[in-house]
Amino acid sequence: MTAASEIESQRSKAVTVAEDSVAVLAFEVAEAVLQRELVLAAEPGQEAVARALRLVPPQVEVTVRLNPSDAENLGAALEGTDEEGRLLTIVADDSVEPGGCVLEAGTCRVDAQVGTALMRVRRLLASGTHS
Asked: What whole-number distance in Å separates Cα of residue 81 and Cα of residue 39?
């Protein structure tokens, strides 16, 4: 191997390491911002349900799984038929993180938890990193 090709190989490896480091740092910043937004949100559980319902067709029965504290605070306001004709049933579920929700409508399942979304991004970053 010539000196020039060795230098190019080392430069390429350094760029790859830098790219991976930037992606990990960007993810950590995004995670911190999202966690802070959840703390500041007035009704994070209600906002999660609204986001998730956009993915569910109208006029279906939907089970809305919420963290017990969110279910206690929001259950009465959300349960019933929404403006799209969906029948919403609220279920308190310890496995759902505060401020998140999991919707079930027939065979459709929408997981609107920040932790789950962050885990998916983390897996994508890990599969895209270079060794």
From this structure: 29
